[in-house]
Design goal:
This protein has 199 residues and is α+β, with helices and mostly antiparallel strands. The protein has helices at residues 6-13, 21-39, 100-103, 141-156, 182-188; strands at 47-54, 61-75, 85-87, 93-96, 107-112, 128-135, 164-167, 172-175. The strands form two sheets. Strands 1, 2, 3, 4, 5 and 6 form a six-stranded antiparallel beta sheet that branches. Strand 7 (164-167) and strand 8 form a beta hairpin.
Amino acid sequence: MSYATLAEFKSAVGITDSVDDTPLQSVLDATDALIDLYTDRKQGFGTATETRYYTATEWQYTIIDDLVSVTTLTTDDNGDGTYPTTWTAGTDYNLAPGNAALDGWPYTQIDVSVTYPRNFPRDVYRGVKVVGVFGWPAVPPAVKQAALIQAGAVWSSRTSPFGVIGSADLGGILRQNRALHPEAQVLLEAYRRREGLAR
């Protein structure tokens, strides 16, 4: 599923027929990939049920990839490659930031619950195993708008020799020379993440 629908994109660029639906969808797909790369979001802004592994560097918490919900959390406490210890949400651990779901953002950290004396296996390679729904609860409106702007720029570039849009006769020349449209980049800045975690 694209961040912006085909119907939304066609409306944005003023296309009413279905002749170019296939190439238009290809532009949307390419735009999604560009946004994911720019923001460094492994799952993008959709969701996927996955199993991911983490090496905790602290006893009391571990940093994770974008997470919507946990199905199971288990740990390998002695580094033998098995995960015999099962953790219970609320009792053993809490997802953080605590208000992430209310704000429409994913969780990015798992904290040891203060009510239970349990620790993550610090520095045990892939010692934390998380099965759950990774990604974002929903595509943020700013990301959808950035996708429409960027897809529109990509679509118009088909008729822009050497990346030039407009002309001096029409009041100015704009040259496309960036990976992202400037307005799309501004919209995406708040969603950039610069570290990869699952391993």
